Amino acid sequence: MPKGVVYLVGAGPGNPDLLTVRAKQLIESAEVLVYDYLVHPAFTHLLPEGCEQICVGKRKGFHSKKQEEIQEILLAKAGEGKRVVRLKGGDPFIFGRGGEEALALAEAGIPFEVVPGITSAMGASAFSGIPLTNRNTNATLVFVTGHEDPEKMDTTVDWGSLPKQNATICIYMGVANLSRIAGRLSEGGFSMDTPVACVEWATMGHQRICRGQLGTISETAKAFGLKAPAIIIVGETAGMSEDLSWFEKKPLQGRRLVVTRSQGQASELSSMLEKLGAEVIGLPLITISGNVNPKTAEDVFSEIASYDWLVFSSPNGVRYFFEAFFKKFEDIRSLGFLRIAAVGKSTAKEIKKYFVSTDLVPEQANAESLAEALVATDSLDSAKVLVVAGNLGRDVLLDKLEEARAIVDRFEVYKTEQTDLSENPAAKMFREQGADGILFTSSSGVRSFIDQAKHLQLSGDALRPKTISIGPITSATMKQIGMPVDLEAKEASLESLVESVVKRFGK
């Protein structure tokens, strides 16, 4: 059997947007992913179907595999001829023990590649607005670990010499030993009023910055409630103006929000929230996929030009309809002279991507309003109407159109199914950390959340989220099953949903 290959890949400081292009390419083609606890679950969405996922922990206070066990996993999976991605927080070769893993692979004769990542200190610097170098204060930069190998008899860090270098000191993994480290730096010559900044969860939506002075930083951090992971920055640049802290000025910075759309749909909403500074946990409660019956499609498309109205009840319907349409036709003009109706602005926006105009969009984005708007056109008597839907679509639209004496055909082009969350990394993050809010954008998502509640039970100290609905139909489902509706968007659209979230949670 040919040997596999192992890629030691840096995932960056936490924010998924800071992943390198090369890292993304490797994750998308991985056969086995071996990852640390601090690696963001969003990266698993990039994995190809069937990829084996192995979490090896690496978090203080939680079960983790020993370094020797991790190396054995890499050797074993590569020995099976697999393409293995070892995804590590930050950079593999900066306090990431990537060197040990590379040595083990080299000794076993297994091919490997090292892909650098943005190290945590650099991420903390950029997202806190604290330059690590400044020509007026320092020309030296030091990265040092605050947590050495506990089995070592003596420290290899000469803390006493660091103050003499007139350097900015970036301390990794030093929260637990902050008091001792501050004392040693002070003894070495740093002034007690030397600026210190501790950047907790650097680059993430819930990033926090604890600022103080060396002589009192231990007490300041304790009162602040500082917890790992955090980068500790010591030096004059740590005291520079807070005006440079651009990230904390974003309206949703410091908020963690859960997006419950299907994986393919979540990216647009997640992106909108992340641009405003929020940390987003993508919890794909449902999976949406094409579900076009070939015989039905043949019948529909052979008669497509005979329809008076083509009605779309969701953006998903638009995508999967045109996917099937262009398998049959090469020219959009094959639709003929029918008129097109969309349930709401988001659906009309999706239709526009195919260079097709929408003739009718109701004020309210729901099936009832769409039916009323169509009836109001006085064009339905004996008219042929094709309603594009999914397997869980409500019958209210079809019923009302038939009451108006329209000849209605239903064309099912996609199906909605529950996602298994039992081993989902995002579900695990939600259970352990909770969130400020959880956004529901469909009734099927609400039902799936309830059905999978056993996989979503929050730990004792996790944030309890407010429940947020995209509109009245989703809210009605939430109320029907006994779930509170803490916030509802003014309009059933992503834009209105985000606007409502900013008003409720923004700075």
TrEMBL record:
Q: Where is the Tetrapyrrole methylase domain?
A: 6-217
Supply the InterPro entries for this chain.
Answer: 4pyrrol_Mease (IPR000878), 4pyrrol_Methylase_sf (IPR035996), 4pyrrol_syn_uPrphyn_synt_sf (IPR036108), 4pyrrol_synth_uPrphyn_synth (IPR003754), 4pyrrole_Mease_sub1 (IPR014777), 4pyrrole_Mease_sub2 (IPR014776), CobA/CysG_C (IPR006366), Siro_Cobalamin_biosynth (IPR050161)
Query: In Gene Ontology terms, what is a biological process of this protein?
Result: cobalamin biosynthetic process
A single GO molecular-function term is: uroporphyrinogen-III synthase activity
Q: According to its UniProt record, in which pathway does this protein act?
A: Porphyrin-containing compound metabolism; siroheme biosynthesis; precorrin-2 from uroporphyrinogen III: step 1/1; Cofactor biosynthesis; adenosylcobalamin biosynthesis; precorrin-2 from uroporphyrinogen III: step 1/1
What CDD domains has UniProt attached to this entry?
HemD, SUMT
Keyword Lipid metabolism among UniProt keywords: no
Per the UniProt entry, the Enzyme Commission number(s) are: 2.1.1.107
Q: Which UniProt keywords apply?
A: Cobalamin biosynthesis, Methyltransferase, Porphyrin biosynthesis, S-adenosyl-L-methionine, Transferase
State the Pfam families in the record: HEM4 (PF02602), TP_methylase (PF00590)
> What range(s) does the Tetrapyrrole biosynthesis uroporphyrinogen III synthase domain occupy?
268-499
Give the UniProt family note: Belongs to the precorrin methyltransferase family.
Q: What is this protein called?
A: uroporphyrinogen-III C-methyltransferase
Please report the organism this UniProt entry assigns to the protein.
Pelagicoccus enzymogenes
